[in-house]
Amino acid sequence: MKNVTNKLLVLFGIIIVLYACNGDDDQTVLSSDKEILAFDLIDNVFSEIDSQENTIVITVPFGTDITALAPSIAISENATVSPEGGAVRDFTNPVTYTVTAQDGVSSTIYQISISVNSVDLDSDREALRAIYYANGSITRVPLDNRGWDVDNPDSDIEMWGGGVSMQDGRVVILGVFNAALTTIPLEMGNLTRLEELYLIANRLTTVPPKIVQLVNLKFLELGNNELVDLPVEIGNLNNLVDLDLHENQLQALPTTIGNLNNLANLILSENLLQELPFEIGNLENLISLVVDDNRLTTVPPEIGLLIGLDRLNLRQNPIVELPFTICNLIDAGVDVRIDDIGVISSACA
């Protein structure tokens, strides 16, 4: 009888322990995170999310119908949003979205405001005026010398010359050279018809994400500046054919560079690149890849997919090894330039 009693006591103790463990599980702390991380309406449109003021401001291209848009929304893990992403809404006036945390108690109300970009010449003039005043007199003097008359509303931009070319009343080519420009103003996004942008030999250190609004851009040349990075949004410039970033201070490229399906020429000479992203192998239309005078010790195997190349310049890099896929380029007749030919021989041995 005593043994039975002891066994019952042991069994009862096990039940109590199991119940206590289950009780601990029931007390799992639920997350209180409740943020909108991304709010995407249409391709190539940048959303300015202010997590302090709980506001989202978006400017969409001219002609966009904002009465029936279905946004894609990314929120904090395990949180919910109302209305849900994908639901069609009229954004003519500001609207609100409520994000509720996993704990079911705390929530954040975001106000979303959308405006439609003007397509008339005044929006282009505003962009040029912002560039003119971006750096005070340092920038204004060289642009004055080129005939920029930004403060005269009656002046004909087509008569300015000095790096500005027009077509059908809109700016399609813009070049600002040797003007000590240190920033690209946000108003640059107004130039929605721009096809060629040359900001060479300035003092730029970064490129604003709003460059994604230049959806018609085909030529982008930012050589001889002080760029230290590129925004991931640059991968949305789907029409880009020529990208020149020579003589900057880039240490890495965003992986989204591999999204530029129409890119034919990529010039990265005289930077500080230590590696190339493997996504570079996605650039199936690339003809010229120039990466001389960097800090590369190898290249990704995916480079062997670029059999449409005419030229691959890897000179003045401390390359010690190449992937065997480099042989695909040699076999395809690509002009591969490298200081130590023996590295190629080793890869293709």
State the main characteristics.
Leucine-rich repeat, LRR (right-handed beta-alpha superhelix); alpha/beta; Immunoglobulin-like; 5 helices; 349 residues
Account of the 3D structure:
This protein is of the alpha/beta class and 349 residues long. It is built from 5 helices and 16 strands. It has helices at 2-26, 121-132, 137-144, 326-331, 341-347; strands spanning 36-40, 47-50, 55-60, 72-75, 80-82, 95-100, 107-116, 164-167, 170-175, 196-198, 219-221, 242-244, 265-267, 288-290, 311-313, 335-337. The strands form 3 sheets. The protein has a 9-stranded mixed beta sheet with strand order 8-9-10-11-12-13-14-15-16, with no helix packed on it. A 5-stranded mixed beta sheet has the order 2-3-7-6-5, with no helix packed on it.
Helix content: 10-25%
Number of helices: 5
Distance between the termini: 84 Å
CATH superfamily of the largest domain: Ribonuclease Inhibitor
Count of strand segments: 16
CATH architecture of the largest domain: Alpha-Beta Horseshoe
Q: Which class of the largest domain in CATH terms?
A: Alpha Beta
Question: How many structurally independent domains?
Answer: 2
Report the uncertain regions: none
What's the SSE pattern? HEEEEEEEHHEEEEEEEEHEH
Beta-strand content bin: 15-25%
Average pLDDT taken over every residue: 87
- Gross geometry: globular
**Assembly type:** single chain
Q: Can you tell me the CATH topology of the largest domain? A: Leucine-rich repeat, LRR (right-handed beta-alpha superhelix)
Helices and strands: which structural class? alpha/beta
